[in-house]
């Protein structure tokens, strides 16, 4: 079995299909699925050499698996990183990065607009082991600078944020981190390398929930970290012993997802931009949050940093009597006939949710207000159905609010 040598400097569309390709003895064309927990040896001496690390090769799928390796090679190529380590979920990737690289007394500055469970890791687990974090507004560079301490080890962010589509300046934050001997971690789940490549902008690590757009069709959980060889070896050592390993089956599904990633992300983005522009002109939509719109405060930054504005937008709704409340949001959502009511995203199916009572339901009222998660806000993760059909569904929502 051998890795196929590819021409240098392939475009992202080609890497998404070809990077990491293996030629098996059977000369399979589709990526082989090695659904095996362990591997066998020719003889006892070979087993001893493999265990001692004196001979390269697979031992046990908690450590390495050839199908998982193809996925890691391909994602590393797409993100432009030296190495990728895959995990059983996005949260496993995030947790392993922190626990492998931080020590008690270290400090992390993070954007406050985060995937909710990432906040739990900061609040409950890192704190318990003596790592403190400070939360700042994603787009406020001065706040990031002011929060840095001598013991700050990482700056951490997601951009664009979910659900309000704020945009953080990756190049500026990478420079700021490096100026202070810290490193920058970017969760690139919403844009994927098809629309945004944080490592090329100076970030040190990219984290993924592969569960979302890398799969793209809502089937499997997985995660990954991409970055330089040496720290990734430490993250891999943590994974080998703690065991949140990606299943080879899930890796195989993600490989099929990656093949169409550039095409899908462009189509998600195009649909989202058109829907955002349409929504902005409707009575009943008080405000649209989407970085592709000219009036978005970080529109220019998003245009420079991303090659598309991404799949997620949110709308602030108001009914025909002028009520901009939870009732309005829920009536709008309940009128959907096509969109799926679910908090998940990263699917070809368009989804709609009410953040204030779902993803942010347990956040204190004050903090919700501060973060802009208003009661009349709905988040839409735009899928790949026809634009006309999506507009018609949102139109049904507006009619339910008494608009024509
Ligand atoms: C879903 C998500 C995660 C967590 O990923 P899981 O695969 O669910 O563990 C992390 N970050 C972002 C931005 C996400 O959307």
From TrEMBL:
**Which residue windows are transmembrane per the record?**
none
Q: Note one Pfam family from the annotation.
A: Cys_Met_Meta_PP
**Residues bearing the modification N6-(pyridoxal phosphate)lysine:** 212
List the GO molecular function terms: lyase activity
Q: What does the UniProt keyword field contain?
A: Amino-acid biosynthesis, Lyase, Methionine biosynthesis, Pyridoxal phosphate, Transferase
Name the CDD domains for this protein. Answer: CGS_like (cd00614)
List, alphabetically, the PROSITE patterns matched: CYS_MET_METAB_PP
Q: Which reaction does it catalyse?
A: O-succinyl-L-homoserine + hydrogen sulfide = L-homocysteine + succinate
Origin, by domain of life? Bacteria
Its EC number(s): 2.5.1.-
Needed cofactors: pyridoxal 5'-phosphate
InterPro entries according to UniProt: Cys/Met-Metab_PyrdxlP-dep_enz, Cys_met_metab_PP, O-succ-hSer_sulfhydrylase, PyrdxlP-dep_Trfase, PyrdxlP-dep_Trfase_major, PyrdxlP-dep_Trfase_small
Q: In which pathway does it act?
A: Amino-acid biosynthesis; L-methionine biosynthesis via de novo pathway; L-homocysteine from O-succinyl-L-homoserine: step 1/1
Q: How does it assemble?
A: Homotetramer.
UniProt cross-references to HAMAP family, sorted A to Z:
MetZ (MF_02056)
- NCBIfam families the record matches: O_suc_HS_sulf, PRK08133.1
Function according to Swiss-Prot or TrEMBL = Catalyzes the formation of L-homocysteine from O-succinyl-L-homoserine (OSHS) and hydrogen sulfide.
Family designation = Belongs to the trans-sulfuration enzymes family. MetZ subfamily.
Q: What is this protein called?
A: O-succinylhomoserine sulfhydrylase
What organism is recorded for this protein?
A: Isoalcanivorax beigongshangi
């Amino acid at each position: 079995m051998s890795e196929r040598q590819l021409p240098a400097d392939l475009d992202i569309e080609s890497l998404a299909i070809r990077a990491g390709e293996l030629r098996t003895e059977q000369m399979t064309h589709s990526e082989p699925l090695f659904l095996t927990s362990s591997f066998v040896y020719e003889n006892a001496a070979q087993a001893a050499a493999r265990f001692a690390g004196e001979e390269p090769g697979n031992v046990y799928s908690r450590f390495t698996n050839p199908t998982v390796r193809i996925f890691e090679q391909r994602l590393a190529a797409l993100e432009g990183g030296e190495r990728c380590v895959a995990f059983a979920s996005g949260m496993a990737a995030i947790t392993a990065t922190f626990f492998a690289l931080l020590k008690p007394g270290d400090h992390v500055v993070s954007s406050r607009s985060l995937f909710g469970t990432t906040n739990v890791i900061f609040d409950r687990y890192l704190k318990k082991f003596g790592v403190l974090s400070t939360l700042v507004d994603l787009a406020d560079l001065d706040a990031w600078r002011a929060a840095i301490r001598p013991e700050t080890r990482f700056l951490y962010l997601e951009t664009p944020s979910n659900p309000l589509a704020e945009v953080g300046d990756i190049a500026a934050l990478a420079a700021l981190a490096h100026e202070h001997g810290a490193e920058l971690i970017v969760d690139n789940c919403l844009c994927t390398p098809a629309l945004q490549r944080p490592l090329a902008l100076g970030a040190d690590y990219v984290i993924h929930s592969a569960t979302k757009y890398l799969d793209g069709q809502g089937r499997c959980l997985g995660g990954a970290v991409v970055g330089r060889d040496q720290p990734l070896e430490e993250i891999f050592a943590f994974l080998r012993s703690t065991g949140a390993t990606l299943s080879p089956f899930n890796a195989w599904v993600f490989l099929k997802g990656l093949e169409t990633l550039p095409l899908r992300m462009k189509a998600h983005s195009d649909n989202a931009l058109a829907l955002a522009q349409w929504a902005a002109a409707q009575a009943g939509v008080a405000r649209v949050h989407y970085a592709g719109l000219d009036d978005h405060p970080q529109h220019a930054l998003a245009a420079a940093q991303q090659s598309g504005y991404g799949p997620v937008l949110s709308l602030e709704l108001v009914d025909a009597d002028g009520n901009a409340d939870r009732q309005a949001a829920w009536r709008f959502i309940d009128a959907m006939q096509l969109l799926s009511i679910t908090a998940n995203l990263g699917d070809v199916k368009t989804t709609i949710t009410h953040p204030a009572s779902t993803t942010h339901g347990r956040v204190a009222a004050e903090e919700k207000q501060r973060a802009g998660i208003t009661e009349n806000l709905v988040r839409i993760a735009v899928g790949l159905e026809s634009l006309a059909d999506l507009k018609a569904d949102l139109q049904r929502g507006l009619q339910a609010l008494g608009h024509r």
